[in-house]
Amino acid sequence: MMPYRHILLTADFSEHGETIATRAKSLARVFQAKLSILHVLDDIPMPDTGYGTLIPVDTPSEYDLLEAERGKLIALGAELGVDPADLWLIWGVPQDEIVRLAEKIAADLIVVGSHGRHGLALLLGSTANGVLHHASCDLLAIRIPTINDI
Ligand code: AMP
Could you tell me the CATH superfamily of domain 94-150? Predict the structure, then answer.
């Protein structure tokens, strides 16, 4: 099997993020791959900011909501031993920005979480599904347990 060389972990800082992050870190270790982390800012208002705008991770912001997300990304990066230069904060729509960044940094594996939503037809959550249909590299969807799985 060809080893993966650059893994992109997508982090939404939700409840099961730890499981997904640990899995991505383990894979990076096994393949001796570079690990990058992306958080897409999609749940805080960013007036006058166009989709796809890169927010500098190394520059403190006076905007509290942004500062909180920046802090979470830096903390996750430190926990996983990721080079600060490989932490990405982008304003936009998660599935679009994930696909776009993966191409830009030449990631060969994207790691996302996936929900078994509503138990019936949907195996993948919406973001995972969108990335699957548009990414040009491999995608690893880590199953996130839902209430329906218990
Ligand atoms: P969802 O489809 O929203 O349930 O999200 C599924 C997975 O997509 C999450 O576990 C993350 O891996 C990724 N994801 C969702 N939203 C974001 C975001 N804002 N930034 C980065 N990754 C995200």
Answer: HUPs (3.40.50.620)
